[in-house]
Amino acid sequence: MPPESWPGLALLGAALVAMWLANSPLAAVQADWLHSVGSISFRDLEISMTLASWVENLLMAIFFFYVGLELKRELLSGALSSPAKALLPFIAAASGVLFPALIFLFLTRDTAFQHGWAIPTATDIAFAIGAVSLLGRRVPMELKIFLLAIAVVDDLIAVLVIALFYSDQLHLGWLLVAMAFYVPMLILMRQRRNWHAAYLLLAMPMWGAMQLSGVNPTIAGVLAAFAIPLYGEDGRSLLMDLEQRMRPYVEYAVLPLFALAAAGAALQGGLLPALQHPVGLGIIFGLFIGKPVGIVVGTLLGSMLLRARRPGSLPAITGIGFVAGVGFTMSLFISRLAYDDASIEAVTKIGIYAGSLLSAVIGLGILFITNAGRHTSAPAERKLD
Predict the structure, then answer these.
(1) Using one digit for the tens of pLDDT, what is the confidence trace for 168-204?
(2) What is the DSSP-derived secondary structure letter of residue 364?
């Protein structure tokens, strides 16, 4: 099995364990554990949250820091480093966000659940890349890079959506405190200083101030990542070094722990009620229909407007569009921000699982058929970052 698929399998395993725990005699223990409260304090300041919220706000901030490093690298030296490279996947990704949101809003019209419109808009990079890697050289490297570029832009859009639509009431004073810690990071970046400890010591209180400001604290992770210099004054890349060092911890610890905390759902009422709920239907059809339709439409429209060559045939792009409908981690995260109602929790999770599974199976099936025969004649391809 290709190494690229292992992070997705680790994430899947953690999700299955979470679902088993939530529907086992240990469900009450799991619930008590997730709702236990932990606090940190400094003089008169205190941040107190349940364990589930600590995972959501702190561990996911680490994940978003890693995502930010990846975004900056791709923007400066990777698949999005020039307008010619970036515009087509950007248009495809933007269209792939718009269509699922519209489908969700349509299916939840005249209800109180429309605030969750962003749940089916995100792509899970670990699962999507892991799924495509299972087909090996059947999928051309150009298509894999296109999927990665779409997923990276998708994450950038998700960060903006969370900052604009899923943050609490702002407290300007704490936001200014966060900025007071961020400005020195920007100065260090400007001077191209590869000082690990300095960035860490500034990022930690910035996260705390962001938590108290009302802005979702995971945004602090992205901001901190964008303050890391691509190349230091000695020519070394602190950004790439951090990305490589963090990758195994994020893929095999941070994301599985998030899945353990967030992916479990009690199914006492069975699957059918959740699949008939407007939120469940909005998520399923948003991921399974909206995502591939949006990406295909965006790719065709973008290639026509830009007069750019498409990265593959229409069936192959359709397959990539379906695979991009695997939402999982980001969809689970946004669903926790969108709804506080425990009664809707199982509905959102089942919708995410069903939509992601359908998308993965159909997408891999299309790619398998479309690229049949490539594995016998294609030369060895470089490993996808």
Answers:
(1) 777 889 889 999 999 999 999 998 888 888 999 999 9
(2) H
Tokens standing for 276? 């008939």
pLDDT in tens, 43-84: 677 777 788 888 888 888 898 899 889 888 888 887 777 787
Q: Total domain count for the chain? A: 1
pLDDT band for position 301 (50/70/90)? Answer: very high
Residue 36 in any domain: the answer is no
Task: Please check whether residue 348 is in contact with residue 280, taking contact to mean a CB–CB distance below 8 angstroms.
Answer: yes
- Residues paired with 37 in a beta bridge: 50
Residue whose pair of structure tokens reads 């809707």 in the numeric block: 344
Q: Considering all CA atoms of the chain, what is the largest pairwise distance in Å, rounded to the nearest integer?
A: 67
Q: Is residue 112 part of a domain?
A: yes
- The pair of structure tokens assigned to 298 is 């965006």
Task: Determine, yes or no, domain membership for 17.
Answer: no
| Distance (Å, whole) CA 310 – CA 273 | 41
Which residue type sits at 66?
A: Y
- The token duo for 314 is 């229409």
For the chain, give percent helix, strand, coil, nearest 5.
75, 5, 25
- DSSP 8-state assignment for residue 373: T
40 - beta bridge partners? Answer: 47
The vertex-56 CA angle with 40 and 64, nearest 5°, equals 105
Take residue 147 and report the two structure tokens written for it: 């999927």
Q: Is position 6 within any domain?
A: no
Q: Range of 316's domain?
A: 49-374
Q: Which residues pair with 49 in a beta bridge?
A: 38
Distances from the Cα of 26 to the Cαs of 10, 31, 133, 344, in angstroms?
Answer: 22, 9, 35, 21
Six-digit token string for 366: 């299309």
The CATH code of the domain that includes 60 is: 1.20.1530.10
